[in-house]
Amino acid sequence: MNIPSSTRNITTEAALQVLAEAAQMRQNGANIAMLCVGQPDFAPAPHIQDAAARAARDGPHGYTDPIGIASLREALAEYHEPDAGHSLDPARFIVTPGGKPTAWLAILMLAEPGAEIILPDPFFPVYETSINFNGAEAVTIPLQEKDGFALRPEALRERMSDKTRLVLVNSPANPTGAMLSEAHTREIAEIVAEFPDAYLLSDEIYSRIVFEPHRHHSFLRYDFLDAQLIYLNGFSKTYAMTGWRVGYGYWPLHLVDLATRFTTNAHSCVNGVAQVAAEAALRGSQDQVVEMTRAFRGRAAVARAALEDIPGVSCVEPAGAFYLFPRVGGGLSSVDMARRLLRERGLALAHGTAFGENGEGFLRFSVAASEAEIMDGVGRLAAFLADLG
Ligand code: PLP
After folding, report:
1. Of 36, 131, 222, 306, which is least surrounded by CB within 10 A?
2. Given 249, 283, 317, which residue is the final one in a domain?
C-alpha cells in the first residue's frame, strides 16, 4: 500500500501507550502502581455534572457555532481578563475538542518545509509529532536539571532567525513542573515581538495548578504580542474533564477566520453538552480547583522527598502541574527502565525520552493518584534500582 512516509512515520504520546498496556495488565489481574496518567484523579465538580445532565436533556442537541457557543466564549473572555489585565474579545476564542487540537492546528497552519519551530526539550510530545508531520524543522532548547528546567530567554534568542515561524512554550510545564518567572515571560514575549513573522504558541493548560508561592504569568498580558500570540488552554486539567474534550485557543484576530476554516473542516464543532458544562465550570465555584491543587502539591512534596532518599536519584521541585521528573541513574536507557519497571515491577511511568532526547536518564511520575499508590510506586522504583546494583 502506498502510504505517505509522513503518515507512516507519525509518532504518538507514549504516556497513553503505557496507560493502555498497564490497564490491560491490571485487567489480567496484575497489581499495578499507575503513575503514568496525565489526568486528575478527581471527578468534575457537582455543578459541572449537573449542568451537563440538564444540557443532555434540554439541549443544545445540534451543531453549535463551529468556534464554540457564544456564551461560553463570553465566559472565557471574562474568566481570562485578570490574566490579561485588559479585556479580551470573545470572537477570538476558538473552542476545540480538548487543548491538544489548538497546538496541532497552529503547527498545521504555520509549519512547512524550511520553516523552523523552536521548542524547549523536554516538551509535550504532540508538539514534535506535528512539527515533523508537517515537514518543518524542530529546533530544540535543551533544558537543564541544574537550572530547575527553567527556559532561559538568552537560549531562545540564540535560536531565533528569519526562518523561525513559531516558538512553543509551556508553563507550568509537562513533564517538569517548571514555570516561567514574570521577568522571563516578558523577555520571551519581547524576543518574539522582534520577529514579526514568528508566532508564539503559549500552552497554559496547567495555569491554574500552581503551587504557592509561585505565580502564573500569562503571555496574554503583553499587548505588543497581540498579533503573534496563539494562547492554548482547556478544561481537562483545571476541571478534571479530560474525557469531556473541551479546550480552546485565543487567536490573533487576523488568523481567526483561517483557523475557523480548519476546525470546521476537521470536526464541525465541539460536543454541545460538554460546552455547556464547560461554561458552568468557568462561572461556578472554583473551590475544587483549589482543593485539587493543594492535593497535588502535598503529594508531590511527599513523593519528591522519598525519591531524593533513593541513592542516585535527584528530583527538581515542581512549581505547578502534577508531575515529578526525577533523574534516576541506574545505567539503563529511560525507555528500557520504564519498560522493565512496568513488566517486572508493575510500575507504570512515562520514560523521559517520551518528552524529547533531553529526557534521557529521567522518568515522569504523575502525582494524579492517591498518596498510597504514589508511595507504593516510589518503593517499587527504589527496590528495582537497589536490585540493579
Ligand atoms: N498541553 C499539555 C502541556 C498537556 O500536558 C496536555 C495533556 O496532557 C495537553 C496540552 C492536552 O490536553 P487535552 O487535549 O486533554 O485538553
Report:
1. 306
2. 283
Side-chain half-sphere exposure of 219, counting CA atoms within 13 A: 37
Looking at the structure of the chain, the number of domains it has is: 2
| Best residue among 96, 236, 244, 367 to mutate for probing ligand 1, ranked by most atoms within 8 Å of CB | 236
Give the CA count within 13 Å in the CB-facing half-sphere of 105: 31
Q: Which three cell numbers stand for residue 338?
A: 520504564
* Residue in 39, 124, 216, 263 to alter for ligand 1 test, most ligand atoms within 8 A of Cβ: 124
Ligand 1 centroid–CA 312 distance in Å is 31
Dihedral (CA of 172, 175, 177, 179) sign: negative
Q: Establish if 182 belongs to a structural domain.
A: yes
Neighbours of 291 (CB within 10 A): 12
Ligand 1: centre distance to CA 385 (Å): 31
Q: Which string of DSSP letters, residue by residue, matches 42-71?
A: SPPPHHHHHHHHHHHHH---S---TT--HH
What is the pTM assigned to this prediction? 0.97
Shortest-distance atom of ligand 1 to CA 235: 16
Task: Please state, in angstroms and rounded to a whole number, the distance separating the CA atoms of residues 27 and 187.
Answer: 49
Q: What is the pLDDT of residues 127-186, one digit of tens each?
A: 999 999 999 999 999 999 999 999 999 999 999 999 999 999 999 999 999 999 999 999
Residues 300 and 279 grouped into a single domain = no
Distance CA(321)–CA(365), nearest Å, equals: 12
Domain final position from 283, 299, 321: 283
Q: What are phi and psi of 301, to 5 degrees?
A: -65, -45
CA of 309 to the centre of ligand 1 (A): 31
Q: Cell numbers of 140, please?
A: 530544540
CATH of the domain at 255: 3.40.640.10
Q: Looking at the structure, tell me whether residues 209 and 300 fall in a common domain.
A: no
Domain interval for residue 187: 61-283
